[in-house]
Amino acid sequence: MATGAVKDMRRIFAEWPVSIPKSGLAVTTFGESIPFCSFMLSGDLLLIERKTPDAQGARRVIVAFDTINAVKILDAIEMPRFTAMGFQSIG
Questions:
Q1: What class is the 3-80 domain?
Q2: Could you report the per-residue pLDDT of 7-59, keeping only the tens digit for each?
Q3: Measuring CA to CA, which residue among 75, 61, 77 is closest to residue 26?
């Protein structure tokens, strides 16, 4: 992932607005979709908490921001609320 994209991904998590639930799926470069219900940051690392354990029994996973390809938001949220994350409407 390009350096700018890593910075943007980190910023999205660091400035996650209270109006959007801290839940979704983090899609990694390992081809894994990690569901999360909460998270914490430490430098270039993201600590993700799962509601239920994975197949190995883990409820938490630490990933580097440069291994996150996408974040899927599962809640039905109106597009304008994402402006708090820095997104803007075009056209």
A1: mainly beta
A2: 999 999 999 989 899 999 999 999 999 999 999 999 999 999 999 999 999 99
A3: 61
Distances (CA, A) of 14 to 11, 27, 55, 86, 91: 5, 18, 28, 12, 28
The CA dihedral of 1, 75, 31, 51, to the nearest 10 degrees, is: 120
Query: Residue type at 82?
Result: F
Spatial CA neighbour of 9 closest among 89, 88, 85: 85
- With 0-12 / 13-18 / 19 or more C-beta atoms within 10 angstroms meaning exposed / middle / buried, residue 31 is exposed
Global pTM reads 0.86
